[in-house]
Amino acid sequence: MVAGDLPFWTSMFLGLLQGSTELFPVSSLGHAVLLPSLLHLDFRQSDESFVPYLVLLHLGTAAALVVIYRREWVALIAAFARAAVRGELRDADERLVMMLAIGTVPAGVAGVVFETRLKSLFATPRPAAIFLVCNAGILLGAEMLRRRSERRAALEGRSREEQELAFASVDRLSFRSAILVGACQALALLPGISRSGVTMAGGLLAGLRHEEAVRFSFLLATPIIAAAGALEVPQLFNSGVPVGQYALGAVLAGLAAYASARFLIRYFRVGRLDPYAYYCATLGLIGLIVVR
Amino acid sequence: MQKSWLFVGIFIVLAIAFGALGVFYWTSDTDLFASAMGRHHKHAAACFGLAVLLLVGASFSRPRASVA
C-alpha cells in the first residue's frame, strides 16, 4: 500500500493528530510514527510519500502560527531588512528577528545533512518510543532547573504569576542563548523529541518566562517548517496522491494547531511542562512494551 | 560583534563560497554531504540561506565612521 492509498479517515486522523500535537511539547512526529503502530492503522510509514505528507500537515501548522503572529511577522520581516542593510540593531524587533535567523541555522543544516538517516527513523516506531521517554526527561530536567532558579531567587511561596514575572522576556535573550535554543531545535529532528518542548526547555534554561519561551518557540518554528514544506511538498504532488484529500488533512492540522496554540499561550502564563513530561513518559513506555 | 574590515572580508568570502556551493548542488550530480548521487536542491537551498546570513554578518561587521 502506498501513502496515496491512505484511507480518507486515516489521513484526516493524521491531520488532526499532527495539528493538535505539533505545538504541545509532546512531539507530533513521535505520535505520527508511534500511534499508527499502536492503533494498527493500515499504512506504511516507510513509504516515500509519508514524509512529504507529514510536511504538508506541518505546513497547516505553520499557517496557523503565521495567522496567530501575523502582525509580529510583518514587523519582523521589515525589521530584518532594515537591520541587514544598516548593519546595526536599533530596536527589539530587529534583535528578535536576528536571533530567530541565527536560531534557525542549526536545525536547517542538520535537517539537510542528516535527512536520509533521519527519514529511516520515521519507519520504525521503537526509536520514537525511546525518544519520547528522552523527551520526558528533557522537559522534567528543564523544569527542575527552573525550580532551582526560583528557589535561588527566593521566589518559593510566591504566586505563580509573581514567580514568572521574575524571569525575562525574549528581548533580554542573548545571542548565545538563541544559538543554544536553535541547537535544541535540531534535536527535534528525531521522532519523539518535541520541537516545541526542547525549544521551550532551552528558553527556560536561558532564563525566559514560560510564556515568552512559548512565544520564542512558536516564532522559531515557523521559518524551519515553512522551508521544509517548500522543499518537501512538491515531491508529494509529483507522486499521484489525492491532493484534495491531503490538502483537507493539512487544513484540519492547521485548525487543530490554531486551537492548541491559543490554549498553550494561555496555559503557559502560569503552567509548567511537567504534565507533558509525564504524558510522554507514559506513551513512550507503552510504545516500548507494545510495539515490536 | 567585532567591527573590522577583516571580518567583513571573511564573511563575504564565506558567503561567496556557500553561494557557489549552492549553485553546485543545484546544477550538478554529487554525493558530497548527501546520501546518494544526484542534484540536491535542499542542500542548495541551505547553502543559499547560509550565504544570505553571512552577507548580513558582513553588514554587521562594517566599522562605523566615528563622529568627530
What's the arrangement of secondary structure elements?
The complex is a heterodimer of chains A (292) and B (68).
Chain A: H1 8-22, H2 28-38, H3 50-68, H4 70-86, H5 92-113, H6 115-122, H7 125-152, H8 160-165, H9 175-187, H10 195-205, H11 210-237, H12 243-267, H13 274-290
Helix pairs in contact in A: 1-2, 1-3, 1-12, 2-7, 3-11, 3-12, 4-5, 5-9, 5-11, 7-10, 7-13, 9-10, 10-11, 11-12
Chain B: H1 5-27, H2 41-61
Walk me through what this model shows.
The complex is a heterodimer of chains A (292) and B (68). Chain A is mostly helical and 292 residues long. Chain A has 13 helices and no strands. In chain A, helix 10 (195-205) packs antiparallel against helix 11 (210-237). The longest helix of chain A is centred in the middle third of the chain and has 28 residues, at 125-152. Chain A is globular and about 55 Å long. The two termini of chain A are 21 Å apart. The model of chain A has no long low-confidence stretch (mean pLDDT 88). Chain B has 68 residues and is mostly helical. Helices cover 65% and strands 0% of the residues of chain B. The A-B interface holds A 83-88, 98, 101-102, 105, 108-109, 112-113, 115-117, 227, 231 and B 33, 35-36, 41-43, 45-46, 49-50, 53, 55-56, 59-62, 64.
